[in-house]
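Folded chain entry —
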Amino acid sequence: MDLNSILRQFSPISLEEMDSVELMNRFDSKFIFPLLSLNEVLKNLNKYYQVLNVKGKNVHSYESLYLDDQKNRFYNDHHSGKNPRFKVRHRKYVDSNMSYLEVKEKKNGRTNKNRISSTMWAEDFSDNQTKFLNDFSLPTKNLRKTIKTSYDRITLVSLISAERITIDINIQFSDKKSTVTTHEFVVAEIKQNKIQRDSPFYKRMRAMNLRRTNI
């Protein structure tokens, strides 16, 4: 059975309905596995999750443009595990043509995401965006565009708890010098209000010997 056929077995949920499980403050658990394993990962999970459906589509295109300073502060803080640490990015929801400027703060294991509407490719920050970033003590004049990512995303919403699963495929990274594609891999992320290792998706990861990773 192909991926689209498997996703059609899930009951749909709209963007408006999903708002109640937005989880802007949450615990994240990431997993990487081969694309060839995705159908097995999703098998029978329709008993526990709905799939985000927008305009009849279960797979949606996203673009992210990451910002950092000249010393790559955010990148280095992430890989050193600094607490707290930040990510700053423009995020575009391609299918709905909506863009946001987002700040993700990782502190004591929790991810807190804040965002405001933006123009993704604007060269300068608006006054509103500058104030937004300054609220996190992030100096806008030092930020520059670094890496752009594009990918297709499947979003599952739990029927039984405050949990969302994002599954990213067809991932591409690019900067001014090169472009790298990773079509053979999947990045899945469990987003929960509190860590629940007994969730059906978490159990599926363990059953398939797939372990959490930090990327």
